[in-house]
């Protein structure tokens, strides 16, 4: 998926939010934003994915402030909260009519939850509501059928918090070989090898770093090991909007599970902003199922 002109102010605003969150003084903020804008001017901006633009933010932050993980506290808090509900969530899934579909729906819904402390009741309500939520594009039935036959699956992770729900899904599915892909460096609140091990994802799947140090999976940065797994796994599931932006042109079938969070991606897919999506790549809109 190529970038749009709307991606420029979106990424600038993202950088500003990161700098403010880190309590960077206003002078340094101005310098960092100017540096980012200059970097964009030197790039073939509209020939790259939005995730490539997002990666430039990481480089600006590293150049100004060194190797930092500004979201570590938020990531750990989100994972801790979901882990405290793990057994309750598992029980809720197992008593549902179709546990695998429910686990998938929980995993998608996890992307939009407010993980601030004290919101456990809201989280459970959000997840339960997701079992009744209409997907604008729904290929969950096809995904579940493929998982029943599959010998191997690769799940490409996105955010912390929802990564705990990914763990629950991977624990429940009966697939002999399971891989879970993470970012190779801290990026926003995305899951890395550190968080994956802390929440025990390595107990239910083989955790691999993708090689990407951006808020998505950039194919020009993936490792040979991850590339082999990406193309050899029978079923590939991509979580979140950033992974969709960077993998939508991949030359193999895969499933995208996400909620559309901006007009650009929503328009590209052909749905309203805020839609839940379970899309098998290559499928046409006439093949979509509403619920």
TrEMBL record:
It comes from the Bacteria. SUPFAM superfamilies: AF1104-like. Gene3D superfamilies: Uncharacterised protein PF01937, DUF89, domain 2 (1.10.285.20), Uncharacterised protein PF01937, DUF89, domain 3 (3.40.50.10880). Residues 6-275 form the Damage-control phosphatase ARMT1-like metal-binding domain. This is Damage-control phosphatase ARMT1-like metal-binding domain-containing protein. The lineage of its organism: Bacteria, Thermotogati, Thermotogota, Thermotogae, Kosmotogales.
């Amino acid at each position: 998926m190529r970038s749009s002109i709307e991606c420029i102010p979106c990424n600038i605003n993202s950088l500003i939010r990161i700098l403010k969150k880190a309590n960077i003084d206003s002078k340094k903020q101005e310098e960092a934003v100017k540096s980012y804008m200059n970097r964009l001017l030197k790039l073939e901006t509209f020939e790259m994915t939005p995730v490539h633009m997002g990666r430039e933010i990481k480089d600006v932050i590293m150049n100004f402030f060194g190797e930092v993980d500004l979201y570590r506290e938020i990531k750990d808090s989100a994972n801790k909260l979901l882990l405290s509900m793990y057994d309750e969530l598992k029980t809720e899934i197992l008593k549902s009519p179709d546990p695998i579909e429910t686990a998938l729906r929980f995993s998608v819904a996890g992307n939009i939850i407010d993980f601030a402390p004290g919101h456990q009741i809201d989280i459970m309500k959000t997840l339960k509501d997701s079992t009744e939520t209409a997907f604008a594009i729904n290929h969950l039935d096809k995904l579940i059928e493929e998982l029943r036959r599959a010998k191997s699956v690769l799940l490409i992770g996105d955010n912390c918090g929802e990564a705990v729900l990914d763990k629950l899904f991977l624990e429940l599915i009966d697939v002999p070989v399971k891989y879970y892909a993470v970012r190779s460096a801290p990026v926003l609140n995305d899951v890395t090898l550190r968080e994956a091990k802390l929440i025990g994802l390595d107990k239910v799947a083989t955790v691999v770093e993708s090689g990407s140090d951006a808020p998505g999976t950039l194919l020009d940065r993936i490792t040979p090991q991850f590339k082999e797994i990406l193309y050899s796994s029978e079923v590939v599931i991509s979580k979140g909007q950033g992974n969709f932006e960077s993998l939508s042109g991949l030359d193999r079938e895969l499933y995208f599970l996400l909620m559309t969070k901006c007009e650009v991606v929503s328009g590209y897919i052909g749905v309203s902003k805020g839609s839940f999506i379970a899309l098998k790549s290559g499928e046409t809109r006439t093949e979509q199922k509403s619920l």
